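Record type: ASSEMBLY
Status: queued
Input:
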Amino acid sequence: MSRVVYIPNMSDHAYTLSAALRSCGIASEALPEPDEESLELGRKYSSGRECFPFVVTTGDILKKVREPGFKPGEAAFFMPMASGPCRFGQYSRMHRIILDRLGYGDVPVVSPTSQNAYEEIGGAGMAFRIKGWQALVATDILQKLLHQTRPYEVNPGETEQVYNQALSILVKAVETGRNLVDVMREIREDFEGIKVDRRVIKPIIGVVGEIFMRSNRFSNNQVVKKLEELGAEVWLAPISEWIHYTCNRFKVESIAQRRYRDILKAFFLEKLQRYYEGRLEKTFHGFLPNCHEPPIEDILERSSPYIHFSFGGEAILSVGKAIDYVEKGACGIVNVMPFTCMPGMVVTAVSKRLREDLNGLPWLNASYDGHEDTSTQIRLEAFIYQARQYRQASLSGSFHKRT
Ligand code: SF4
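Status: finished
Output:
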């Protein structure tokens, strides 16, 4: 493709993913992080009934096409789609309609689908699959380094500075095809050099929920930082989880429909992903406690008493990941979602039973719609207080915790 493929800036993964595309000879750039202007534009060109991530990504696309010097003949927008019980599958179609109406009918919207585990992304094939996957996993690990170091830093701002430098190094390394295991080893050393004080043990909070909202700092009003400011350490569900899930889904559906070639392909992809993920995770043994991600089957197994596998989509992942985090020591869960998110509402509904089964685990269902809400801050404060108490009770053995 001779056009520049613009990637929505859901998280810092957008930078490494576009670097992976560039390394495969496809011009690509991450769109800038969303801001108030994105919201204003997105709202102007949507009806008010769409999901919040759609509004934000629409605004980002429109901001780009309105930039002076934008050349429609040289641009394309990346918007993956998914099947399942929600509206994500419609985003790219709606973006197409909006671009057409505004006279940008010649600007493609590149939409790989979860139905074939995002087999063809921008036509880049297997080379991109390997590079893009490593880039995503490495960025997940980088974020874990940030979240598991920043709450304990002695010199305020140092972790973020090291993180930003590491992200630039990683982007360059992905683009130039350097061995990412070597790069991540160097990054580990940089993080080891940050002065930390871990004498005060902080409650660990797991953040799960809708992938865009939990990952996008602007859309969730910086929920990770806010929890850290209230004295917590945060574990944020990784992006790689969704890719593992779509691969698993592809395998299960291929088996059910006896598509033998696809079955082989799915097994191969799973093996490939695990191999590259394992190599990168190994680099952080003994340093990053929450580095290793369990197999996706374990996550699905954990959620199965609450939501049937056939329901599909993000709800089962949120529930399974929440249980995984609690088993690893989290003292509270925040389920981040856009206002009126369908999977998010399902998770909210089952969270009551989940809390009961987990000895009254503090659980906050936090929905966002782009407006600053002072009550969210108060709810976060109360939630962190409960998480501390839960931790105390857990340590004193006053309830039986799942293992
Ligand atoms: S997960 Fe929620 S917010 Fe995302 S597309 Fe589906 S319904 Fe909308």
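Annotation: The longest helix spans residues 125-149.
Annotation: The beta strands are 4-7, 28-30, 75-78, 109-110, 204-209, 233-236, 332-338, 363-368.
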